[in-house]
Amino acid sequence: MDLIAVTDLKQWVYCPRIVYYHRVMPAVGKPTFKMREAIAAQELIEGLEMRRCLKEYGFENARRRFNVWLSDEILSLSGKADLVLEAAEEIAVVDFKLTSGEPGENQRTQLAGYSLLAEKAYGLPARRAFLYRIPDNRVFAVEITVKLRDAVRAAVEGIRALERTEWMPAATPVRARCTECEFANYCADVW
Ligand code: SF4
């Protein structure tokens, strides 16, 4: 069985039907421009806010590993973390975000997914993760709580059930999300 992409955890919380299209009907949908790959993450981390934040949380001297592939069969997850900070007794994942707004539940769940994978890979606890909002160089610290960890496991179970049954989940009740969705043409019931 293939592993679930950590990015699908984010989509699962945002609109589970997107995950249905990704995993059950992978041929549909328009490819989106991957701006993330153009991000010069090394430059961003030298920014004032990021340095300040790393110091505040004790990661100023942490080893920095960019674009780290992580996977684990037991978690059933895999994905590429933008940045992993490896300190002496703790590890933290940093995700770079191109859009505005506060980190939502979907982004927190994704960060928790990367954090669980990083814990397994490095054998260190991940108590928090960071989201770096690129447009205004703002850093958000996200505590990796028991609730978020449970949300990751629930999402994995939900996605596996979706694959088994090929059941199409209900559309997101937040219909504003449909306007720019790459699968808008396939969700006739939302219009
Ligand atoms: S169009 Fe709306 S309901 Fe359909 S997948 Fe996209 S966000 Fe979900």
How would you characterize this protein structure?
This protein has helices spanning 6-14, 16-24, 41-45, 48-56, 105-122, 146-165, and strands spanning 4-5, 63-72, 77-86, 91-97, 128-133, 138-143. By secondary structure, the chain is α/β, with parallel strands linked by helices. Strand 2 and strand 3 (77-86) form a beta hairpin. Helix 5 packs across helix 6 (146-165). Mean pLDDT is 89; it is low at 33-38. The structure holds iron/sulfur cluster (SF4). The site of iron/sulfur cluster (SF4) has 12 residues, from helix 2.
Task: Summarize it.
The chain is an alpha/beta fold and 191 residues long. It has six helices and six strands, in the order E-H-H-H-H-E-E-E-H-E-E-H. Strands 1, 2, 3, 4, 5 and 6 form a six-stranded mixed sheet that branches.
Can you tag this structure with a few keywords?
Lambda Exonuclease, Chain A; binds iron/sulfur cluster; alpha/beta; 37% helix; 191 residues; six-stranded mixed β-sheet
Mean pLDDT: 89
Shape: globular
CATH topology: Lambda Exonuclease, Chain A
Ligand inventory: iron/sulfur cluster
Q: Count up the domains.
A: 1
Main β-sheet: number of strands, strand sense, barrel status? 6 strands, mixed
Spatial extent as radius of gyration = 17 Å
Percentage of residues assigned to helices = 25-40%
CATH class: Alpha Beta
Low-confidence stretches: 33-38
- Structural class computed from helices and strand pairing: alpha/beta
Return the string of H and E elements: EHHHHEEEHEEH
Span between termini: 35 Å
- Strand fraction equals 15-25%
- CATH architecture assignment name: Alpha-Beta Complex
